[in-house]
Amino acid sequence: MKTILFAKTSHKPIDKQLATNEILKVDDKFWHWDPYRGIRMLPLMTKNAVIGEAGTFNGREGTFDWVSYTPTVIKDWFEQEIFPWMGAKTRIMALLTPPGIANNEHIDCNLEEVGSRQHKFRVVLQGRTGTLYFKTSEGDVTVPDIEESFIMDGGWPHGMLNDSAELKLTLAAGAPWTGHDSYNNVETLMFREDYILPTELSAYTKK
Fold first, then answer.
1. How many domains is the chain partitioned into structurally?
2. Domain membership of residue 55 as a residue range
3. Local structure of residue 52 (DSSP, 8 states)
4. Is the separation of the CB atoms in 100 and 199 below 8 Å?
5. pLDDT over 80 at 92, yes or no
């Protein structure tokens, strides 16, 4: 079986408008700037429900739990639709990018993990999925515009340019969850085997 680079998933959809409205009501003090990705982030589920930038650290002891301000619509969707499919709870973040702003090209794992299974789960609540692109040896390759949630290979260098006139808001679930070897509810739209990684992968890691 070819391996996933980008695949849409089949789940009962979340109410995107309600989720967006509720997320944007959260006090600005709970958001933080991530210089690695060039994006504003809001922790929603973290180890011991720790808030702020500290909530991005998975290395502490404890279990994953929802932070106090996470909207009910998001909690219910993950608890009922996503976590049973994932088989575990994991860190959940909201990612916010203003119009006309690019995110840094990066990988979402350590350099030595590139090539291993590094699936990340995403759903775009507001904005276009097709602003995301992967870096390849032959240039940038844009992902398809879809409405569904999706899996992407976080170990492949990628970036995003929000070329729309509205904020792009995405829910992101990743480590320690890294996906499954097979799925019964995905349609793979891009395969790893169809592309070649850029040669200088260290350019997309934390300095």
1. 1
2. 4-204
3. S
4. no
5. yes
What does the alpha-carbon distance between residue 79 and residue 37 come to, in Å, rounded to a whole number?
27
The answer, yes or no, to whether residue 1 has pLDDT greater than 60, is no
Residue 207: per-residue pLDDT: 64
What is the rounded distance in angstroms from the CA atom of residue 107 to the CA atom of residue 203? 10
The pLDDT of residue 58: 66
CATH number of the domain enclosing 148: 2.60.120.10
The token pair that represents 118 in the structure block = 């590094």
Mean pLDDT, the chain, integer: 93
Strand partners, 142: 133
Contact 122, 158 (CB under 8 A): no
CA dist., res. 136 & res. 168, Å (int): 24
- Take residue 172 and report the two structure tokens written for it: 């992101």
CA of residue 128 relative to chain centroid, distance? 14
DSSP string, 79-148: IIIIHHHHTS---EEEEEE-TT-EEEEE-SS-GGGBTB--EEEEEEEES-GGGEEEEETTEEEEPPP-SS
Task: Place 54 in a pLDDT band, splitting at 50, 70 and 90.
Answer: low
